Amino acid sequence: MFWFMQGLCFLPAFLVIWSSCTFIISYLIALLRHDVDPVFPYISDTGANPPESCIFGLMTFIASCAATATIYARYKYVEKLTGDTELLKPCLNKAALVLGMISCFGMCIVATFQETAVEAVHDIGALLFFVPGIVYAILQTVISYRVFPFGSSVCVCRARLILAVIAAVAFFPTVICAFFGRQSTLHRDPNDKGYPFYLASAVCEWIVAFSFIFFFLTYIDDFKLFTLKVTTEYEE
Questions:
Q1: What's the CA gap between 78 and 226, in Å, rounded?
Q2: What's the N-to-C CA distance of the chain in angstroms?
Q3: Are residues 204 and 41 in contact, defined by beta-carbon separation less than 8 angstroms?
């Protein structure tokens, strides 16, 4: 049996590969069409103009669906792991589930409303994606340590901690530098006084995004250990 056929590990594996391809493909298309600058554009800039906006929107929506399934599967796994113990309060697991779903909804908003079309809605979607997503990663890290040695290994727990910290730390310069380096076009002049802020914000945005992606990568070993089954009950 191939590794990706064990349990439900295909869910986080697909999410990681698909999300990475979403960002990279839209960036390459936008770059080849000269719609963005080659040096660290905002992720949303790479999906602002057609045809890359269509590809970015579709692939991001699929990624949000995969993330929803992965987050729910993780919730059920933790629920089963701690169901008969006092290791973890159920409210912590439920809070992580809700925050994860909100983050996925924010991802859908980002995919649907391009920044060049409805900037305010797009920015709200980005905040809904990043803020609950970071808190979700932090809560899952706390959960991993709480249930240890059950579930994840200590190396996986530490990897989640590092990725959650990186995402949290990188988020603040993403927002703060974006305020000082606001842009009105997809192309920026390096000689512009706000360019260093813009570049710092864009770099940190990419760091936050890929911190999320690699965080889900740590789920693969856990997801090899369980499956989910749907039961049908017929009521006469």
A1: 11
A2: 41
A3: no
